[in-house]
Amino acid sequence: MITHMSMTTDEQNIINNPAMVYSPYNGPDARSQYYGSTYPQPTIQVQIPRLATNQVYYPNNGSCQGPAIHNYPAAEPPYIPQQQNYPAQAAPLPPTPTSVNANANTPTGLSVQSPAKANPPLNCQMLLLSLAEEYFAAAHGQGSMLALARREVEMEKYYKLIATGLGCLEAVLKNWRLEPHREAVVRLRYATILYEETENVMEAETALSKGILVCERHRLVDLKYNMQHLLARIMFTTNARAALKFLDGVIQDVEAYKHVRWIYAFRFLRVSLSLDLASHQDTVAALTHLKLIAGVSKNHGHHAIFATASTLEALTHLRHSSSLESIEQAQRALAAARSIQMDSLLARVPQLAALTYFVDLCCSLQNFDPAQATLKMQNMQAFLDPAIEDSHWTTDGRFSVPITQGDLPQASKLHADIVRTDLEGSLALELNWLPKEDIYALAYLLSGATVSYLNASDGRKGEKFLKEGIRMLGDDHEVPKTVSQAMTAAASRQTWRRILRCYMQVYLIFALCARTEWPAARFRLSQVKETLSDLGTHAPEPLALLSHYLQGVIHQGTGDLASALSIFQTSSLALPSATNLTPRSQVLLDLSILSALNTILILRPPTHPQHSLLAPLLSALSPLCLSNPSKSLQSAYYLILATTHPAGIVRTKQYLQSALQAAKQTANTQLTCITLNFMSAKFFKGVVGGQAEKSARASLSLAMKGGDRLWWSVADGVLGIR
Asked: Any idea where this protein resides (predicted)?
């Protein structure tokens, strides 16, 4: 619907003085990035046209003959109408000047020389394209702040800027017959903004479909692949399986034409989308594509791509399972990635090196090897400390994986968002991961998890690492406001940072509980629950269950056994039944085992009303604990058997010996202390002798070393009985 209104003063200025352009952003001209620099570049002055909150302004018909106001629903995201009241025939393009020279003495800063005219008419096509980029830049400049504050007035201005920019692009597409390359670029830009900023999926798909036809007709290969890449991501938001099927077809076409760089791009996209689905079938498919990428890159000598595929393969193995087989496969993939670490191209990708160190450390953490994990943590820190000054870090998390040029053709220099030519002159594949600040925060989390078992005896280094990571992420979950990005991207990053901060808080709560610092643990847990409430459906299931389990631990530690038992017996923390064949993640399975072990400790007294549940629980736990890769869980299970299971002295000694050996393998001070205290009370009660006193003093020393005041008191009591 178009409503013609009388012209304002600003609009009269545009018509009367074609060299003056009003724009909301007084930054560098962004047109050349997307549309080239063939046309004159007008001077940009800051002045935002005053529009109603649900209207978008752009010159009518691209002819600068009067204003047009497009009405949009006030409560809906900005939507570009399908029907426009334009003339049946597009306005012709104005003549192109022969040369454009900068001249500071002219009113616009430009001096246009033409054999026909000294002052050619204003090129409204390029005017609209320039305005669109300026509107987008102005909106994205405040995207990070809006993701934090989300104030209604500022958000309304943000969406008005985005809608106005989209209107400018749409006007260009509908009113001019563009040169094929430029038309494809404009359609790609239009669809990208629709995908990032609105919910107009059908409109974006339509724009891409038309653009792909233009590219096929004029053999614009790189632009076509860019559009298909975006189209697959858009389709994935509505129909994941259809998107994967479409992507498989594109990969076949790319391989048939032997466009190697795009084989990498589409297969990496296929891996990313498959891992988002997280099913076993899709995980296997992701591993298959990563191995194919590694094979192609190895044959072509693209070492950086090979290292990237191998590192992602190792990470995928760890995500898939915590079994020893998966850990071994991950380590083999890491060994393959490090086999070419001396390649000079890898020095340009500090993000890839950081990911390699992270995955290697996680292998040792999953394998419960504290000594090896500590060594790998030190190696990771030794790499990250000097790498903080590397110039290849980016503020938005993007990084370029270089591809050896060889006999590959040059990538398109215009709108090369996926495959481009980097500053060193070689082809590079653009990938998205984490910006530098988030990578270092993640390093603090891994460091804190690595040394948490030595927290009390090592100057509480684990707590210091975790607190520093929490400080880096900010108490108010700030996203750096200097990053120019879409509000949706800034909101996604903010959500990820808040989730990471919650995991740091959870590890810190475990450390506080081990030292019986119950008030501090309760305070930290309240912060986690508040964040989870704000996240809503974005909160990951393991994080919610961890907070739920820790609530029960705090109740049990402070003597509220009834509340603790009610939490440990909830369905979300129940052991998997024999008839339930649905696979569970290792985190959820471990939490259910820990809840059952704590339940047994509460039900152990014969006078407890639910004491009859003890035997079934022990029977259900036996296969789960004995097959669990965690030695600490096995130690706790053997200790529970020794204290609750009716058995003779010989069997009890065997249980205690197994518990003590498993605790020592993982350097678990708390379990070792508890086991020695029980041995002293069970076998040396009332016994006077060197062995009895040695056992009691060892228990007291471990309790003091671990900072556990409860077992410190128990060890003091056992020693006093001697």
From this structure: Nucleus
